[in-house]
Each structure stands twice: as C-alpha cells, then as structure tokens.
Design brief:
With about 90 residues, the chain is an all-alpha fold. The protein has a single domain, classed as Multidrug-efflux Transporter Regulator, Chain: A, Domain 2. About 80% of the residues lie in helices and about 0% in strands. The protein is elongated and about 70 Å long. It starts with 9 loop residues before the first helix and ends with a helix.
Length: about 90
Amino acid sequence: DNSGKRNYDENFINWIKFIQTLKNSGMSLNDIIEYINLAKYGNNTYQERKNLLIKSKQILLEKMSNLQSMIEKANYQINNYDNILAPKTDALIF
C-alpha cells in the first residue's frame, strides 16, 4: 500500500505455508522450485510432483537410518565408557 506495507491475499499465504511444509519435510529448495513449476501445469504433472515427494521421503528415511546408527554407536560408547572409551581417551591425552 502507500505506506509500504505489503498485502498478500489468502492464496499467496497458503502457498507460503505449503512451501514451508515442503521445506520442513526435508525437500531441497531446487525440488521445491521444480514442484511449484510443475504445479503450474496442473494435473498433467501429478506423477512428477508425487515423485518429488517420494524422493524427499527417501532422503528423510536415509537420514533417519543414519541417525539411528549414530544413536546406537553413542549408546555403545556410553554403556562401555568405563571399560573401552575412557581408557582410549586417557591414552590419547596422557
């Protein structure tokens, strides 16, 4: 408007919320841009958009698997700290 404030319609705000959802799901910025560009073409790009979501989910599952593996290693180190990790650390320092 005249005072420099930006006014957005509800559709624009819904797009921003949707983009935030895609970003929070782990989708890359490039894939979000591609998704939006595909969406402009309507139902003809349904499968391509769905494939982007599937790709994003796969990346999340891989990250989750890696994190689970790191948690298991951390648990092992914690559970065996006195017998394994502390002596190794002490040997490096002293």
